[in-house]
C-alpha cells in the first residue's frame, strides 16, 4: 500500500468526522447502545434506564473532541481523562480520575466472552504487568488454576450481582467473570498511549493503524483505569482515533467482547462495526441489529429527541449538511476497510474447558442464555449487506460457545431464542445479600471475625431492610447480633 502523505491523512480526518455527522439523528444511539440489546430493550430505552444520561454524554464527548479528530495531534493522558469526564453523566464514577486516586475496583467479564486466543493475550498482558493482582469475590468458589493450551495462570472465577432488567431495580442475576485488578495505573496508561502515538507516527498502511488502535484500547480496557465507564471511554477514544485516520466510527453488536477475545479477533470486530456504521448511514430506515428505530413508541421518540437535542443543536451550529460527495466517501472507505487483513475466527473457551463449579446448575442456565445470544448474533449479521467479507459474525452457530457443564444434551433448536427458564438465574438484591450473609454465619470463623466481616458489608441504598435485620432473621447468635448493634450505633452503616 502506498505511504499516506500528510495532506492525505488530513483529508481523511475531515472525511472521518463527516461519517459521524452523516449518521441520521434517529440512529445516533447505535454508536452507544450494544446492538445485541436493541430489539429486547427498544433501541436506546433500556440502556438509558440503566445508565441515565449516558447516551447524550457519549455523543457529546465525540462532538467536543472534533478538533482532535480534524488534526494530526497525538493522544495525551489529559485527553483520555477528559473523555472520561465528559462521558460520565452527572459527575458519577469519579470523573476523569484514574482509580489509583481512590479505592481500587476489579475488572470482570463473562466467561462467554472468553476465547482461547483471548485468554492467551490476557495472560500475556498480566505477565507483563506484574503489579496486577488476582481478585477474589466469593468464598463459595476456590481459585481455579488453569492449565490450558500451554497457559499457566491463576485466575479467579468470581460471582457478582448484575441488574437483569433495567426497569426492575431489585432484580439481579449472577454473572461469572475472570477478573484482574490493579493498584497503580498511571505508568501503564502513559506507556500504552506513548506506544500508540509512536506507532501511528510511523504507520504507512491501514493495517498498522488499526492494529495500533486495537492494541491501545485493549490494554486500556484490561487495565480498567477508572472506577466505572471504562468501556465507553475506551470506545469513544477508539472512534476518535478511527475518524482521525479517515475511518467511520464503530457500531458494535457487543463491545464487551473486547474483554475476552484476542487483539487480532477484536480487529475483525472493529472492521465489521465500521461497515455496519456505513450501512446505517446509507439505509437509516431499515432494521439494523434486527431493530427499526421507527418502531419506537411516540413517547420514546419524544424522550430520545430530548436526549439528543444538544447534539442536534451542535450540528446546526456547525452548519452541517451531508456533503454531496458522502456516497463517494463511503464507497472509498468501504474499499479501505475491505482491504484490511482478516484474522482467524475466535475459538471459544467454553467449548473446550469445563469449569467444575459447586453451583453448576445456575452456571449451566447462564451459559444457555449466552449460547442463545450468540445464535441471535449470527442471525443479525446473516442479513448484513457485506456478507462477502469473511466474518465470524457470519459463521455457523457451531463456532460459538456451547454449554459445557452438566447439561450437554440441549437441542440446537432450543437455543435459537433466549431460554424461558432464565428467570431461575435471577435473584433479588435481598436474596443475594441473605445468601452471602448466611455463608459468613455458617463459616468456621470466630464470632469476632464474623462480626468484622459482616460489619464491612453495609446496607445498600434504596431497600426497606438492613444488614442487621437479615442477620437476625438468618439465626445469628446473640453475641454476633449485639456486636453488630454496637458497630451500627458507632458507624451508622448497618
TrEMBL record:
The segment(s) forming the Fido domain are 135-294
Ranges of Basic and acidic residues composition bias in the record: 408-423
Among SUPFAM superfamilies, the record links this protein to: Fic-like
Q: According to the UniProt entry, which residue ranges have a biased composition of type Polar residues?
A: 389-407
Record-linked Pfam families: Fic
| Keyword Signal appears in the UniProt entry | no
The residue stretches assigned to a coiled coil in this entry are 186-213
**Gene3D superfamilies in the record:** Fido-like domain
Note down the stretches annotated as region Disordered: 381-423
Q: Which UniProt keywords apply?
A: Coiled coil
List the protein's name: Ankyrin repeat-containing protein
Amino acid at each position: 500500500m502506498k505511504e499516506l502523505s500528510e495532506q492525505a491523512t488530513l483529508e481523511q480526518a475531515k472525511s472521518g468526522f463527516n461519517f459521524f455527522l452523516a449518521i441520521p439523528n434517529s440512529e445516533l444511539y447505535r454508536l452507544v447502545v450494544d446492538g445485541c440489546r436493541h430489539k429486547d430493550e427498544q433501541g436506546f430505552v433500556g440502556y438509558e434506564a440503566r445508565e441515565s444520561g449516558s447516551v447524550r454524554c457519549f455523543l457529546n464527548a465525540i462532538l467536543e473532541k472534533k478538533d482532535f479528530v480534524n488534526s494530526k495531534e497525538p493522544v495525551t493522558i489529559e485527553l483520555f481523562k477528559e473523555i472520561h469526564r465528559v462521558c460520565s453523566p452527572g459527575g458519577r464514577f469519579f470523573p476523569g480520575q484514574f482509580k489509583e486516586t481512590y479505592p481500587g475496583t476489579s475488572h470482570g467479564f463473562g466467561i462467554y466472552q472468553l476465547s482461547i486466543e483471548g485468554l492467551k493475550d490476557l495472560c500475556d498482558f498480566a505477565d507483563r504487568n506484574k503489579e496486577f493482582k488476582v481478585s477474589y469475590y466469593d468464598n463459595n468458589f476456590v481459585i481455579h488454576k488453569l492449565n490450558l493450551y500451554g497457559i499457566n495462570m491463576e485466575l479467579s472465577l468470581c460471582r457478582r450481582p448484575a441488574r437483569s432488567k433495567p426497569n426492575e431495580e431489585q432484580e439481579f442475576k449472577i454473572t461469572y467473570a475472570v477478573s484482574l485488578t490493579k493498584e497503580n495505573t498511571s505508568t501503564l496508561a502513559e506507556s500504552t498511549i506513548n506506544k500508540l502515538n509512536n506507532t501511528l507516527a510511523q504507520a504507512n498502511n491501514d493495517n498498522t493503524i488499526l492494529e495500533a488502535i486495537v492494541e491501545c484500547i485493549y490494554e486500556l480496557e484490561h487495565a480498567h483505569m477508572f472506577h466505572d465507564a471504562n468501556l465507553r471511554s475506551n470506545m469513544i477514544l477508539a472512534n476518535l482515533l478511527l475518524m482521525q485516520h479517515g475511518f467511520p466510527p464503530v457500531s458494535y453488536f457487543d463491545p464487551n467482547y473486547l474483554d475476552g477475545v484476542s487483539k487480532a479477533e477484536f480487529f475483525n470486530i472493529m472492521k465489521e462495526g465500521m461497515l455496519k456504521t456505513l450501512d446505517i448511514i446509507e439505509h437509516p430506515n431499515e432494521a439494523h441489529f434486527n431493530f427499526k428505530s421507527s418502531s419506537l413508541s411516540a413517547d420514546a421518540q419524544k424522550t430520545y429527541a430530548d436526549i439528543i437535542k444538544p447534539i442536534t443543536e451542535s450540528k446546526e451550529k456547525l452548519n452541517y449538511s451531508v456533503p454531496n460527495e458522502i456516497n463517494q466517501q463511503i464507497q472509498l472507505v468501504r474499499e479501505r476497510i475491505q482491504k484490511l487483513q482478516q484474522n482467524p475466527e475466535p475459538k471459544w473457551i467454553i467449548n473446550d474447558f469445563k469449569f467444575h463449579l459447586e453451583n453448576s446448575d445456575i452456571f449451566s442456565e447462564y451459559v444457555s442464555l449466552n449460547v442463545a445470544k450468540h445464535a441471535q448474533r449470527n442471525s443479525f449479521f446473516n442479513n448484513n449487506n457485506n456478507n462477502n467479507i469473511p466474518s465470524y459474525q457470519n459463521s455457523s452457530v457451531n463456532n460459538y460457545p456451547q454449554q459445557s457443564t452438566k447439561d450437554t444434551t440441549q437441542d440446537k433448536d432450543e437455543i435459537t431464542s433466549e431460554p424461558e427458564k432464565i428467570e431461575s438465574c435471577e435473584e433479588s438484591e435481598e436474596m443475594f445479600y441473605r445468601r452471602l450473609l448466611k455463608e459468613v454465619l455458617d463459616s468456621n470463623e470466630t464470632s469476632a471475625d464474623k462480626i468484622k466481616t459482616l460489619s464491612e458489608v453495609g446496607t445498600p441504598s434504596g431497600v426497606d431492610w438492613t444488614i442487621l435485620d437479615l442477620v437476625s432473621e438468618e439465626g445469628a447468635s446473640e453475641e454476633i447480633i449485639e456486636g453488630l448493634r454496637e458497630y451500627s450505633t458507632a458507624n451508622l452503616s448497618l
